[in-house]
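Re: the 99-residue chain
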Amino acid sequence: MVFLKRILFWGAIIAVCYVILGYHFIFFGKTPELLKKTKLNLRYTIFSIPEDEFLKSNESILDIDALREAGIGDLLVKYGRMTEKKKEKLLAEYEAESN
């Protein structure tokens, strides 16, 4: 019985670590969203986007490679922070810069 408890305890610890390493926790104001990371790491695990666009611009959010590659642009469109057309334009600019 003790052995089973240890296995369950360590299994839970490993599962929590995987979730922390594998997902971005994005907060739009007080609304949380999960965004799958492109690779396991601790970069930008918790990221807050204020409701006021003047505090953090869409360009500065998309300027973060880890978030842009994970698809934060789609969340910005979903929450009405930008249009699909603006998202495509910004992503095309970043794609051109990287080439």
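The CA atoms of residues 21 and 40 lie 5 Å apart.
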